[in-house]
């Protein structure tokens, strides 16, 4: 059963709960560190998992926040939305299309995350994207923003805001594109559930991975993120990125258990 006090305890937050930017940043980062992204419970369902995103929050709370299962975007963002709303934040639902390996973006309703209206600004709040992404919320602004050695910016292109990130090495890389428009859960009905079409470049990264049953794990730590997509392992720490394939089965298993918090 959903409980604000229990949720905050799980996140390890004992500070003030008034809706401020500082508290929002703290809760977001703690959520990213303590609650893993994990699609393994859903991967076998393929695209059908996208057909019903209006979840039972009490059941999800018991399984994820209390049970430590980990979850996917609409589960994690759904729970965090409930928490923030209970704490008095002005929260809206947002959608995005993730950048695929080819550089193309997925459909607009490929990913669900949140926006928080606070102090006259809109903050992007996303605890349900495996990454690499951002650890603390970002303001919707033309200004560059830096977190833990990674610089972020939002550029306007073709009617979208494109979120890009850059570490210490390399060029800007897009994360996803969005329109800062409030969505409803009903907007997902039929929007991201079509069968992938080989002739449609818009069906991309996330949709293809879900359809293929690829298992994805992700979790943040104090200065970076760990992401495991299949056997491709990405570690980002203070803006330095390491990417390698975990060929050894034992190393893969131990890495997955570490990301999911099962080795504690």
Beta-strand level of the residues, as a percent range?
A: 25-35%
- The assembly state of the depicted protein chains is single chain
Largest sheet: 8 strands, antiparallel
Q: How many structural domains?
A: 1
In the CATH scheme, the class would be: Alpha Beta
CATH architecture: 2-Layer Sandwich
The best one-word shape is globular
Strand order of the largest sheet: 5-4-3-2-9-8-7-6
Question: What separation lies between the terminal Cα atoms?
Answer: 25 Å
**Regions with little confidence, pLDDT below 50 for 5+ residues:** 192-203
Can you give the mean pLDDT? Answer: 90
Instruction: List the total number of helices.
Output: 7
- The CATH topology assignment is Arylamine N-acetyltransferase fold
Rg (CA only): 17 Å
Helix/strand order, N-terminal first:
HHEHHHEEEEEEEEHEEEEH
Summarize the structure.
With 264 residues, the chain is α+β, with helices and mostly antiparallel strands. The protein is built from seven helices and 13 strands. InterPro entries: Arylamine_N-AcTrfase (IPR001447), Papain-like_cys_pep_sf (IPR038765).
Q: What tags apply to this protein structure?
A:
single chain; Arylamine N-acetyltransferase fold; 8-stranded antiparallel sheet; 5-stranded antiparallel sheet; 7 helices; 13 strands; globular
Molecular structure report:
With 264 residues, the protein is of the alpha+beta class. It has a single domain (4-190, 198-259), classed as Arylamine N-acetyltransferase fold. The protein is built from seven helices and 13 strands. The chain has helices spanning 4-11, 21-34, 40-43, 57-66, 73-86, 205-212, 249-259; strands at residues 37-38, 90-98, 111-118, 121-125, 138-139, 145-147, 150-157, 160-166, 173-178, 216-221, 224-229, 232-237, 240-245. The strands form two sheets. Strands 5-4-3-2-9-8-7-6 form an eight-stranded antiparallel sheet, with helices on one face. Strand 12 and strand 13 (240-245) form a beta hairpin.
């Amino acid at each position: 059963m959903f409980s604000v006090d229990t949720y905050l305890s799980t996140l390890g937050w004992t500070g003030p709960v008034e809706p401020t930017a500082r508290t929002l940043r703290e809760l977001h980062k703690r959520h990213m560190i303590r609650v893993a992204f994990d699609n393994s419970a859903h991967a076998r369902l393929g695209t059908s998992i996208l057909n019903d995103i209006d979840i039972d929050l009490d059941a999800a709370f018991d399984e994820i926040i209390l049970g430590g299962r980990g979850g996917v975007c609409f589960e994690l963002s759904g729970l965090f939305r409930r928490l923030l709303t209970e704490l008095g934040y002005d929260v809206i639902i947002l959608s995005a299309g993730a950048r695929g390996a080819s550089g193309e973006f997925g459909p607009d309703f490929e990913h669900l995350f949140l926006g928080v209206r606070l102090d006259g600004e809109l903050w992007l709040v996303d605890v349900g994207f495996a990454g690499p992404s951002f650890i603390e919320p970002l303001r919707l602004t033309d200004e560059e923003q830096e977190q833990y050695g990674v610089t972020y910016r939002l550029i306007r292109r073709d009617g979208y805001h494109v979120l890009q990130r850059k570490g210490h090495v390399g060029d800007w890389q897009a994360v996803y594109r969005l329109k800062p428009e409030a969505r409803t859960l009903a907007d997902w009905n039929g929007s991201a559930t079509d069968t992938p079409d080989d002739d449609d470049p818009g069906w991309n990264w996330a949709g293809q991975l879900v359809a293929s049953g690829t298992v994805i794990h992700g979790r943040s730590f104090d200065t970076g993120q760990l992401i495991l997509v299949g056997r491709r392992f990405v570690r980002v720490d203070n803006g330095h990125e390491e990417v390698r394939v975990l060929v050894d089965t034992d190393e893969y298993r131990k890495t997955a258990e570490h990301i999911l918090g099962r080795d504690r």
